[in-house]
Amino acid sequence: MTDGPASPRGPRERPLPIREERLAAIGRRRRAPRTERNPLRAGLRLERMPDPVAIVLFGATGDLAHRKVLPALYQLWRSALLPLDVRIVAMGRRPYDDSTFRQEIRVALDAHARVQPVDEETWRTFAERVEYLRGDLDADATYDELAARLEASDRDHGTRGNRLFYLATPASAFAPVVQQLGRVGLDREVSGGGWRRIVIEKPFGRDLESAKRLNREVAKVFREAQVYRIDHYLGKETVRNLLVFRFANLIFEPLWNRRYVDHVQITVAESIGVERRGAFYEETGATRDILQNHLLQLLALVAMEPPATFDANALRDEKVKVLRAVVPLADADVARDVVRGQYAAGWVEGEPVAGYREEEGVDPLSETETFVAARLGIDDWRWAGVPFYLRTGKRLPKRATEIAIVFREVPHALFRGSRSDPEPDLLALRIQPDEGILLRFGAKVPGLDVDVRAVNMDFGYGTSFSVDSPDAYETLMLDALLGDQSLFTRADEVEEAWRIVRPIVDAWVAGPPPEFPDYAAGSWGPAAADAVPGRDGRRWRRI
Ligand code: BG6
Fold it and tell me: From ligand 1's centre to the CA of 240, what distance in Å?
């Protein structure tokens, strides 16, 4: 193995110095002192490179692999963040050979690689490391063949027994694949024989029971320390920055509690519809697709206590603690505080679009929700009495993910009469797009009288940093290769999130059918959603 990824230093150079590569790649501008640890990487030193490894990608011909996983691997290779001795074994049912599969990835990279155009020399060296293994995921023979291939990879390509299994398949295949890996002993770590890890995509279960069942099946084969459950929101730069923002700065921490915070709003708005995922979405809906995972993860990061260390388990312990403190919803709470919706035809970003029931793969009488808004409470010392309003939907007017911390009014409103605009102070963390942080406060309008109006202080990633952010999948893939579980969800965490969501989905199954569709594509969801904060005398922020 003599060649390496193309880099500014030349294609055949060993990808060192690692620290500079990593710092450049993860977008940090200042040099870290030698002793600095990356606090979001469980104390691993930045100097560490992933070990030689065979990455086994299940579902390699699927959409997720093409759009996200393979482009992330290519980008890591391009940034010299994969070891030279890396092998990617792509598993799929389609009748490809290495060469036809490589052609297919090339097409995917031309469409989805973060840095365009695809560099020819980097592509050549990357493609050489990719092989295709055709097989039925239910068949024993597939795994026998896989085990043989991996031995050959250790022998011929120096992968040293290290294996990362990546499940990018439909969820129904997760448990069977795990069982098969166990059957052929591919999970087993023997001293000096390399490590074995498994990355599992979402959805992790479709309710509390199935998530527990899947956790049990996985635990029969892999130890928790080997399991990396993906919620790709945790890999987003701005989400990682939430921890930095909260715990690397002193000024906001004293305000981050019920004494000063009136309420919190978390919005994950999408302008896209269900695209070609109608059949998947029919079984999922907005609550399972986004609320149970991305939204609750954002809530956990906003509301958790500072962990004592940034060890993966210390961090996840705090997230689990705050999820446990989320007040369980009774049926009456669901009826009052949770609103679902489904889009009808309408206009989004100037284009006419079909209603959900007209989408490919969707039942024309579908009762699946494409929008959900909920009010949650957290019963702990920091947050008791502070509502958290969460909402997500497809075919909303724009793509925008934002966390808004809305502050209380001053205790004695000296200027009440003179506020021409009575907006409360607010901190908005813009997760995407237009990533940044906005602080809104009242200022005196210049003039002889006293008029107070809200003004903004705005930090934008794009203007403050001149580097591109890595894609969430690059960050997460690198972390899995480095053995850092901080940005992956633990078994108990996934179950807590399902516990929160369970009463919602149960109440809907038991209750009368919804009157869908109830919002036009391109609007901010059903009118009833306004009542979620409205009942408390509050309103959704206009984003
Ligand atoms: C996925 C959901 O987890 O997240 C999709 O299954 C959704 O329905 C997507 O579109 C949103 O991710 P992002 O990174 O575009 O905000």
Answer: 17
